[in-house]
Design brief:
- This protein is mainly α and about 80 residues long.
- The chain has a single domain, classed as Rossmann fold (3-Layer(aba) Sandwich), CATH 3.40.50.620.
- It has 2 helices and no strands.
- The longest helix has 20 residues.
- InterPro entries: Crypto/Photolyase_N_sf, Cryptochrome/DNA_photolyase_1, DNA_photolyase_N, Rossmann-like_a/b/a_fold.
- This is CRYD protein.
- It holds the Pfam family DNA_photolyase.
- It comes from Hylia prasina (green hylia).
- One of its GO terms (molecular function) is damaged DNA binding.
């Protein structure tokens, strides 16, 4: 979870993620973790800036051959 996604927006400081969306996200992550666990896998969940968290995970795991990510499209006003 990137803390920057829960701050205010650029223009009016409106919350990017309200309480209902946050609850949905947390329930979705919990459900995904439980589903993966039933299939013999797991889900790594971290809080922090992705550029820091991913670097730390790669360092910790040591044998990473690929990293895939997406970038949020931002509307320019």
């Amino acid at each position: 979870f990137d803390p920057r996604h829960y701050l205010g927006t650029h223009c009016y400081s409106l919350p990017k993620t309200g309480p209902h969306r946050l609850r949905f996200l947390l329930e979705s992550v919990k459900d995904l973790r439980e589903t993966l666990k039933k299939k013999g896998s797991t889900l790594v969940v971290r809080k922090g800036k992705p550029e820091d968290v991913v670097h730390d995970l790669i360092t910790q795991l040591g044998s990473v051959t690929a990293v895939v990510f997406h970038e949020e499209v931002r509307e320019i006003l």
